[in-house]
Amino acid sequence: MSLLREIVERVGRPCAVGTAAGPANALDQTAEVARRVAQVAPLEATPRTLSGVADVFVELGAAQLPEVDHWLREIARRLASGPDLVTTLDAYYRADMNRLAAAAVLHIHPRTLDYRLQRVRELTNVDPGSVRGVRILSTTVARVLAGAWT
């Protein structure tokens, strides 16, 4: 990770890191998988994680289906109209939906987090705490953070 952080620092802009495992005699195919993973992994100014297929398989699928990508983009557009909703959802899901931990990471009161999650429900008609909501909204957040629609 220290080498990756140094590379990103020298590049001077956020980067995504994709990894893949494969047989030694198929390095070109393995590198292609890692490249595709990096295309949908979140951009980070300081890399904290290495993304593999298991981490971004939903995003890989969404990126390959224009209809799904368009639908998620519309959800992202709705989220953009609220106060820090993408950042809020990212922190909420990274904290395993623990409200207190997410609020602490965001440096906000837990009631403020509740208001933001309610705003997500109002804007998207999706409950961020439901199984359906986690699938839809976490994929949308990951696509936004990967710079999919910039």
Automatic annotation (TrEMBL):
Keyword DNA-binding: yes
UniProt keyword terms in alphabetical order: DNA-binding
GO molecular function: DNA binding
UniProt cross-references to Pfam families, sorted A to Z: HTH_30
Residues in PucR C-terminal helix-turn-helix domain copies: 85-132
Keyword Signal recorded: no
Protein name: DNA-binding PucR family transcriptional regulator
